[in-house]
Structures are given as C-alpha cells and as structure tokens.
Amino acid sequence: MFAKYWNVLVVDDEPDIISITKLALRNCDVYGEPIVVHAASSKAEAMELLQGPLMRQGGYANLTVAFVDVVMETDTAGLELCHHIRHVMRNHITSVFIRTGQPGLAPERSVMDRYDISGYFTKAEATEDKIYSLVKSGVRQFLAAGVAGVHFEFLHQLSLASGSRERLSQVLTRLFSSHKFDANGKPVPGLRYRRWVMAGDLVLPGEHADEAHALRERLDRMPGTPLGNGADKLVIDGLDVLIKVAASPDTMEMYTVMSLTHPIPDLVASIHYRFLRAFSSLWLKAGVPHGASMMAVV
Fold first, then answer.
1. Backbone angles phi, psi at 87, to 5 degrees
2. Largest Cα–Cα separation, the chain
3. Quick one: average pLDDT of 97-125?
4. 279 falls in which pLDDT band (50, 70, 90)?
5. Which residue segments constitute the domains of the chain, with CATH numbers given?
6. pTM of the full structure
C-alpha cells in the first residue's frame, strides 16, 4: 500500500543471531507488504548501510526497525549507533531495539532513558514470536508517524495558501504530485495507490477524474462507518476507500477517494479523515466573500 517492503536492520557480530532473525522473519508480511532484512556485523558496517538506501527515500526515513547488539567492535559500539540514529540522523521514526547478550554492560533503564530506544531484550529472549511482535509494533509506529508527518507538512503548506481556492488547489496538486517522486525525479516506493480529494465536481489532482467520480458515486451509496458527529463517514469496499466530510458551519462537503493495493489500516484512515476535515474548512473559508456568512456559501 505505502511501501514495497519494510526494511529491518540487524546489527550483530554473531552470525548465528543474524541467521536466527532472518529465519524468524521469513515469509512474514505486515499490512500486506514483505519484510526485508539487512544485516551488519559492526557499527561501521551499519553506518554504511544507513548512509545508503536505508537513510532516506523521498525525504523520509526508510528504515522501519533496527535490532542492535551492544557489544561489537567495542563495548559501546551498539549504543553509539543508537545515538547516531537518533541524534545525528535525527531519526525518531524508526523503532530501535537493543538486543544484548551481556545486559550488565548496558543496564536497561539507563539505556532506555539515555538513548531513546524503543525496547530492550536479551538474546536469550529473542524467540521467533518475540521478534515478529516487535517488528509488527515497529511497523505500526513507523506507519503512523510517517503518514502523520506527511499530512502535517501538507496542512502547513496549505495553510500558507489559505484564502484562495485557486492557490489551495494548486498547492494540493503540487504536493500530491511531488510526493510521488524523490529528489532525482524517480518514483518513490511507497505511493503505489491512487488518491483524490473531491469538492463538488472538482477533482484534485485532475488526472483520471472520471475514475474518481465513478468511485465516489459507487462508494457514497454505501452506508459505511459514521465518523465525527455522525454526519461524516468512512466506506471501505475491499481495496477502495471513501472518506466523506459533510457540510457544516465549519466544513464544506468534501471527499477523499482512494484505490489501494492492500487494505487500509484504521490509523491511516483516521489520519486521512482529520486531514480532510482541516482541508475542507480551509476550502470553505476561502470561498466566503468578505462580510458574508459561511452558511450562505455552503
């Protein structure tokens, strides 16, 4: 849906630990996408990976979960790597788990507090179920933070264009389009879906407008799940999604319709809904003549 795969980094100087982790995650997928395990046997090797494809993709961190051993080329190599991820790369989206065979060298509470890690466990506790559950929770956190971050940035840019529907439509179209490509103009893995925002007959962005109208008409006939005060709704029909914001004193009737490759998680639908309500409010206010009431515009 949003990524072709979830990247997991395993940093450990014991080959058996890396093999066990790969075995635990074999044939696993989360939200319909597979897990890809990248391995490093030292801090230095992990740093090289982090400067490559695991660093950023389309402006966003591309590493979902990292399992880091403490003792490798030095007694604190793993902790130094955690510091680098959080404070040098300023990556607070990736879930970082310390996995150690010598817990006395890095007491759990002090490590959690100082290095802002997501969890701590010993190698003896590293069962297949434990590893999978940590990856699943890490993907959930990564997805929530990533989707929310994108939408917050969208709303910031749209707020700068508030007051003009023409500017709002131009900015939203530009944001939707630019978000599909990285700095080199290549498609970003993670946006393999179609999404439109619709206000009346206006479709943003304008590509495949007929498809958007047909999708809205079909899904809007379904009852769906009430949202907000009950007038708004969410409709999910397989991989097709409609989110509706009803007309009110603060919002204009507006829709988001999406055609996905995998079912939408609840948290992603919730973030989309809040974004659409905010955008519909900006759109409504931008169409209100000076001194007129907003209800008159609706």
1. -105, -25
2. 72
3. 75
4. very high
5. 6-140 (3.40.50.2300), 165-297 (3.30.450)
6. 0.78
